Amino acid sequence: MKKTPKGLRLHIGIFGRRNVGKSSLLNAITGQSVSIVSEEAGTTTDPVEKSMELLPIGPVHFIDTAGLDDVGALGALRVQRAKTIIDRTDVAMLVCEAAQWGAFEDDLINLFQTERIPVIVCFNKTDIQAPNKEKVHQLQQQGVDVVQTAASRQAGIDEVKEALIRKTPEEYLTPPSILSDLVPPGEMAMLVVPIDLEAPKGRLILPQVQTIRDLLDNDAYCMVVKERELRDALDRLKRPPALIVTDSQAFLKVAGDTPEEIPMTSFSILFARFKGDLPTFVQGALSIEQLQPGDNVLIAEACSHHPIGEDIGRVKIPRWLTQYVGGKLQFEHVQGHDFPQDLSPYKLIIHCGSCTFNPKFLFSRIHKCRTAGVPITNYGIAIAYALGIFKRALQPFPQVQDMYDTSSITAAK
After folding, report:
1. H or E stretch at 164
2. What CATH number labels 188-268?
3. Could you count the other beta carbons within 10 Å of the beta carbon of residue 180?
4. Domain boundaries 277-412, corresponding CATH code
5. In 159, 182, 197, 244, which residue has its Cα 20 to 30 A from 100's Cα atom?
6. In the chain, where are the structural domains located?
7. 267-275 helix and 278-286 helix, angle to the nearest 10 degrees
8. CA 319 to CA 341: how far, in whole Å?
9. Over the stretch 330-356, which tens digit does the pLDDT of each residue have?
């Protein structure tokens, strides 16, 4: 893979009214004609996305949205689509003209701050009119960075980049590791990678690639095997691996072939911790015990792959949960950025590992589930629970097991 995955990039959303120069500003920052620029309001109809390197931050992903003041039935759809971008925005840029500031902009500032999204206000077209000094001071008092630009003339672009650097969350400058705390330097992880119909031809899937890179970055070793080769590979080693990580669909066989003294988990569970909220997902899996035949379960996939054969989200997880519950459940599926506004019909939401999502997007979904009172878990944790190896799969994470009393964990075995 030549490019940093989108899910590891800082997502920068560009918002504002129509025709304030959002697209011109994006083009000026990237140095490319990414968005169409026109004097006609509403030229940008759908979000325009552009990935690039912005030093010293590193890989970033810009999203230029349609004007949030669009009108008409089609305009309302564009506005709704633009607002969904907020769910995956790490840093927000609010672009406006000096003479246009009003309740519309105040409401957006309040929304960003409620969502705890760092925000930069770009007063654009300042070659025509400068912003009100009192408004600039008021925004700065609110913790908002303010820059003045004339994007069509490339004025103020360096100041925009400097503001983006200041507003970048610390976790993007010092990103967490996937498993360095589980596999110290000089130790080895064994990665179990099934090769089936859904495995992409000629390459590994993204979580596997990222895990390998993480091990190498932390001076650890890795051995990659298929599930049928695990036992023989272990027999050949002079020293056991520090950790075995498997694709969740091979959990049962890998658990059977892995000695109890060797910690074992799955890529999906690692990414539940890396991208999401492992304690919340574990708590959500415990709610499987309360599922009844006929209950609605939503399965959410971050990527929009075409399901074939024994698809894990559409075939295997429904089959394993149905067997565990002892009766038919009602499964619904969503892919990509689609996610229901109303979560009340569901008794459980099961999310994939979210390797293509940035953490902000996944946390926004977790927050929506909490607000709706609907438990959420992820593929690997749900599979481990349904297959009766819940405690075994969480063995590398004693801090999570300690959250629950012994009887809860024993009941989930």
Report:
1. helix 157-167
2. 3.40.50.11420
3. 15
4. 3.40.50.11410
5. 159
6. 6-173, 188-268, 277-412
7. 120
8. 27
9. 999 999 888 999 999 999 999 998 888
